[in-house]
């Protein structure tokens, strides 16, 4: 059985994979043989994108999933997911995984933590027992409460200081010279994004003395850096490259720069209200998160209810089954997003804000330019009190004309959906817009060609992950 490996792997790396991968796959087969009968019957009765259901076929599919998961997920989505049929795929780390079609997302992801576990499943996915080694930090949702109750609420108080920190970081990392300078895109955003940790440090913590010891504070900041700063840095990298790889004749950069300059002239500072008026930039980042997402599947969940969970009148998923969502397939589904492979930065913008010089797939354009008097709708202000974990939050109100960056939607999954959606998305979205506004107003950016085209080239795909090139370089210089 042949396993297709990336050509850029070194010989020692290939040898390690050749030895270890079969052992991991065999361990999954052995574990499956000794699992409880209800799980076994469920796996046998659920379709999977393979030729036949035998241990040898499953072993081969498990091995192929390391570098071929994308093909397996695409095949399963086209064959079953589009018909609203759940299917299973092999995963060399987790064993069989149930992939939900879009029609089941609202029902399944509304289950409470006591029925469908997110925290423990995510802890297992990142091997927190070994990588974090502190059960008081992970898996717990203490930091979720802090983000909801404290940091997000105080965003308006620290917004201007945050903007000053961002400006200072750009001067230090990208420089002030009008000569071209080559930078490594992702690492530069990671340095600039350190201000997000600064914002967290400005907010008071829980009054429980057990939760504010130096050890726990330090551990939580490390976890926050891993989960938030890296994720937002990658999102900013994609937004930068997607935007500046678009043909200049489209006028996207000019329209966004005009929006930023107009709003800043009218407000004089990047306050919370001012940033909320960057409607075109808001849409641009959301569109990039759709097109250049981080994985073929997402949302690790595990059924923990003793009686399982019912996802349809004919399907009950038993305890112990691991669940994921086919995020990239949904993002690239033309039934949800017309012309999905094309980057439409203003796809999610309000129709009244579209400039006449650009086109959008969302609606007809209007000569109106976004100003301080034409703010983005605000259906996403966080609640005054956190939603109890025992009750799923009400679905956020949808705006039929606009989809603000932080809006939850079953067809846009960059922030999660329903239970356990990203609690820090308001501050992350605010900061990403402030950072991109600095880029647009202060710098010119030149994206190099990769594989004969402007842009980052194809993402590196390993298992279910879509990994950007960490060494990708762009040229920048200060605008005159």
Total helical segments: 16
Distance between the termini: 59 Å
Spans of at least 5 consecutive residues with low confidence? 358-401
Lateral strand order in the biggest sheet: 1-2-8-5-3
Number of strands: 14
Q: What share of residues are in beta strands?
A: 5-15%
Encode the helix/strand succession as letters.
HHHEEHEHHHHEHHHHHHEEEEHHEEEEEE
Helix amount = 40-55%
Cα radius of gyration in angstroms: 23 Å
Calculate the mean pLDDT score and round it: 76
| Main β-sheet description | 5 strands, mixed
- Principal-axes geometry comes out as globular
Label the structural class. alpha+beta
Question: Could you explain how this protein is built, in words?
Answer:
- This protein has 480 residues and is an alpha+beta fold.
- The protein has 16 helices and 14 strands.
- The strands form five sheets. The protein has a five-stranded mixed beta sheet with strand order 1-2-8-5-3. A three-stranded antiparallel beta sheet has the order 4-14-9. Strands 6-7 form a two-stranded antiparallel sheet.
- Helix 8 packs antiparallel against helix 10, helix 8 packs across helix 16 and helix 10 runs antiparallel to helix 11.
- The longest helix is centred in the middle third of the chain and has 32 residues.
- The relative contact order is 0.14.
- About 9% of the residues have low confidence.
